[in-house]
Amino acid sequence: MKKILMTLLSLTMASSLLLAACSNDSSAPASDNGNQAAPASSSDSGGTTAEANTAELLAGPVAASDMSKLPEQAKKRTDTIIVGLTDPSGAFTPYFHQSGYDGNVSSVLYASLVTVDDKGLPIPDLAESWDISEDGLTYTFHLRKDLKFSDGSPLTAEDVAFTWTILHDKAYDGDSEVSTVLRIKGGQDYKEGKAKSIEGITIIDPQTISVTIEKVNAKALLTLGGNVLSKAYYGKDYTFGSLDYIKKLHATPVGNGPYKLDKFIPGQEVRFIANEYYYKGKPKTEHFIYKTTEGDTWQFIETGEQDYGSFTATQDNIDKLKKLGFLNIVPSTGSSYGYLQFNLEHATLKDKKLRQALTYGLDRKTIYVDANQGGAQIANVPTAPISWSYTEEGINPYNYDPEKAKALLDEAGWTEGAGGIREKDGQKLTIHFIGSKSKGTDIFIAVAKENYAAIGVQLEAEQFADFNALSSKFESRDFDLVSFSTPMLIDPSDGVSSFVNGEVKGYDNPKVKELYDKGLETTDIEERKKIYKELYQVINDDAPYIFTSYRKSVYAYNGRIEGLNVSPFRGLATSLPDWSLK
Amino acid sequence: MSTYLLRRFLYMILILFAASLLIFMLYALMPGDFVSNNMKLTAERKAELREIYGLSKPVMERYFNWMNNAFHGNFGYSLAQQKPVLTLFNEYIWNSFLLAVTSTFFTWLLAVIIGVIAAYKQYSWFDTLVMIGIFAAMSIPSFFIGLFLIKMFAVDLKWLPPGGMLTTGSNATGMEFVREVVDHMMLPVIVMTLLGVGSLTRYFRSNMLDVIRQDYIRTARAKGMRERVVLYRHALKNAMLPAITLVGFELPGLFGGSLIIEKIFNWPGIGQLYMQSFTVRDYPLLMGFTMFIAVLTVIGTLLSDILYHAADPRVRL
Amino acid sequence: MSSISGSVTKTEAHQAAVTPIRSSLWRQALHRLRKNKLAMSGFIFIVFMLLACFAGPLFSPYADNKINPANMNAAPSLKHWLGTDMLGRDVLTRLLQAGRISLTVGIASMCISVILGSILGAVAAYYRGIVDQIIMRVADLLLTIPGLPILFIMGALLSEWKIPSEYRMYIVMLMLSFIGWPGLARLVRSQMLSIREREFMQAAIVLGLNDRRKLFNHMIPNIIPLLIVVATLSIGGAILSESVLSFFGLGVMPPTPTWGNMIDAANNLIDFEKHPWLWIPPGVAIFTTVIAINIFGDGLRDVLDPKQKK
């Protein structure tokens, strides 16, 4: 699933995990010109004004107002659409690439067995339908008839079985969860070389395949329902234990998606050409190009060299996009959330009252909404507003309230000491914050220092040059508070798994564990909704994280393009075959 | 001379060995590794991956493995890009080289001309204007100059392309291809030249001032030689002397790429590639590239020493 | 402005090679410097800048650097002469506060690297032989070491040793000078090598002067003009390089401003176009300071150059 989580990274929101620290200040993926400035508002209630403005600006899609402003260069293109992508590296085999940008490329080249709709619910893709056994352990996929790879060869259950098998090779170094999280029956034996094939995978006929897993897992359907590799092509040289040969095939992918690879120019472009064997029929636009854009993308949008761009939903960005006139603008919210994680192994932070006080005492609205010109909204639960599991019912919004924070600190036994800093048993209340170096963190530190000083808490901040440096500091456990953001979340369980799998060290709430397991044991959405609501209420009250924000973006595209739709989970690839230039 | 060269060559090999060890250690000591990029991996999976990549072995063993392979011409595969390191260099380095060579040429050309004139007309309006221009270029970060030029020439005036090396989707060949590349090179070369020309001009100007005051220049003038001949034949030659040592130092810079320029102008160069590899701790690529630059640096310093001797035989090596 | 200073330097009268008492040499130099109006105006500007930065914020009503959500990104006005930034803080006040750190850092780091580089280069050129070999080969080695991983390792170490973040930058600067001397050392060495072969050095040897006197009284003064050019040129770079360190989390911590990180905060097309008051003030501050320092340095160079004594 990681691939899918990563797929959209570059096209949608900025500083997600991997990229949080990339290179320099424009750390955001290229197509996202996240600027953190705030609205120029002269009234004293600047905050509310800003919110009202943004709400109005983002109410819905805005159509291009003046197509006559369309630059010459964009007018000249008749059968080509160009989209920016930060940095594809050339490893276009699904499951085997290490960069999310290559994931974006392979999502155009490959269709998957099962995909998701705009709510994150599974819908058929290469598989026409599927059955899940009563006990929830056996999945049977029914493939569409006459599926073909881009070289014209047929796609059958053999290929699906080969794909699942190769992911269990002991040399496999990708991040597919098929072999790591999911427990396919016999998978471990294969990995250890004890079996020639995986026992749990059964090919019933060329269009039907079933697989048995050892433990019920609500994510199994999407994890199994990924891309399909051609056995004839990728399996030709396969022997157990050595996968190096695949590297030689990265540059010449044989896929089954809407487009096939035409040409890759490193550091510049990935060119695609419509795939006549695509099961939904050849896409309407003959050529598609991912253009590598490392820095700002404005200049390419403005000069018409690029047809599509995604931007943080700040006032400045929206104003500018509207002014250009030839762009359709659509607001969207990402499916990830940002958070500040407490180090729950520190005795002082084990106290729920202290954690809640620190949440009340932080002016999240100023940091994430106002200073960001409305480019985000406040989060209070570990799921995104676009998810079917999102709820505000029974959720404490922790509105900024220094008085309440002070009262809670008093209750927790922290009393004012020298220099206005609270103390308890002779120990000063200082919070050691770590984060990666970015504009957002700069703003956080500036505001949080002031906020916390006002309630008698001293904030000591450290910033690290890149994500790797931050994560190694994080692993040393020498911090009180750390700032992270999740990757794209599809299933609601993705957003809460860290509370139960030991990732949030020192957090142990049996109720959370129980609800988490319950949430995965059923595939009935309504029932799951109820379970997650209860789970979110518990976590919201427990405050192991300070939930911070959901990033909001706008995407803008050339007004000539019709049929464009961005899935919050799968990005452009799902609607790509329908794009046409008018 | 030949014993000197032999000795220097031996030192060079020694230094490169020491450097390779030091560089390998530095990269290994950096916080985080290739596996820690991905926070979602479980601890067991991380251990498995470190085993696959050989990251669980002791550093010295890893170093000797690398060295051994390097001696056999095998610099390994990039972990992140999944391609042989040398292939990647080949894909990106020439683009950086193209920019660097062009801008270095213009930098030196302009610096010599401006430096000589500014020195000859010391404290004139020309000198003052040049000085102010130089300081302006030096005290403004390169990204600003870049943004400004893009805004002006690409977005507003539409004279030049906004970035990249080719027009997206272009199938140009032959002369048309060359033209396109030249168009795209224009802005980055201007910025790089602006950035480099300042200190070099100051350097030439100051050398020139030194030389102009020397006795032999006075003699030449006294002999009634034409001013231009004095200036360009006698003075410039001597003023260039110390600058010759700088030539060798330019060598690694020609292949090193420039992160900021490549990023602003979306140029497909090696500087970008290095930075990305750095953030994900792609050791084979980092090691290969750094050693490549190290070799060039060492050759460059040797070159500048030899050039210096050639230019001024009084100086013993 | 050209004619005044020109008249000072162009009137050359050679003095005897052996200088009399030191203090009078310096007094002479000072006297000549005072007469160089251009250099003095540079000097006065630097003093003014220092005063403004260190004392200015004391008179500002916004000196507490408080964020103000109600007045973010406001354009310049009577209340905020240079507008406010994305957190509603007064840009002018921050500009002056930033100057304190930027000037200190710029001048300090320039001094360290120039002193280190010139001494090592001079020593290598003077003694030659094994000393030269060791210094130059270490320089060669250092030139091959990439700076980026060193910054990262230092970041991790300083964090582990719990060095307070306000001191980190200075330690890092010091460390960078320690690995950054080879370039200058080589330059100084090559200059010294050619000076060493000049006639007046032969004379010094014939006169039987000791090493220290030969090195410090005769050779080093001859490279001072070069050093001044290098030093004054590197100030602008040093001020900007502070922002590079901040970028690696090794510079100053927010909310403390510096010129470098103020200008960096606006490195995208949107801010470039829409909020010029965010980047013009720090840009102008760096520019004028660099010019002033260089004008002053030029004057100093003219005055100290042994080849053009009055």
Automatic annotation (TrEMBL), chain A:
InterPro entries: Peptide/Ni-bd, SBP_5, SBP_5_CS, SBP_5_dom. Keywords: Signal. The keyword Signal applies. Residues 1-20 form the signal peptide. It is found in: Cell membrane. Residues 122-498 form the Solute-binding protein family domain. Pfam families: SBP_bac_5 (PF00496). It comes from the Bacteria. Residues 28-45 have a biased composition (Polar residues). Residues 28-49 are annotated as: Disordered. Its main location: membrane. It is a lipid-anchor. Belongs to the bacterial solute-binding protein 5 family. This is ABC transporter substrate-binding protein.
TrEMBL record, chain B:
The keyword Transmembrane helix applies. The keyword Ribonucleoprotein does not apply. It is a multi-pass membrane protein. The chain crosses the membrane at residues 9-30, 92-117, 129-150, 185-204, 243-265, 285-308. Residues 93-304 form the ABC transmembrane type-1 domain. It is found in: Cell membrane. Keywords: Cell membrane, Membrane, Transmembrane, Transmembrane helix, Transport. Belongs to the binding-protein-dependent transport system permease family. This is ABC transporter permease. It comes from Paenibacillus profundus. The lineage of its organism: Bacteria, Bacillati, Bacillota, Bacilli, Bacillales.
TrEMBL record, chain C:
It comes from the Bacteria. SUPFAM superfamilies: MetI-like. The chain crosses the membrane at residues 38-59, 101-126, 138-158, 170-188, 223-250, 277-300. The keyword Membrane applies. CDD domains: TM_PBP2 (cd06261). PROSITE patterns: ABC_TM1. It is found in: Cell membrane. It is a multi-pass membrane protein. Keywords: Cell membrane, Membrane, Transmembrane, Transmembrane helix, Transport. Belongs to the binding-protein-dependent transport system permease family. PANTHER family: D,D-DIPEPTIDE TRANSPORT SYSTEM PERMEASE PROTEIN DDPC-RELATED, OLIGOPEPTIDE TRANSPORT SYSTEM PERMEASE PROTEIN APPC. This is ABC transporter permease.
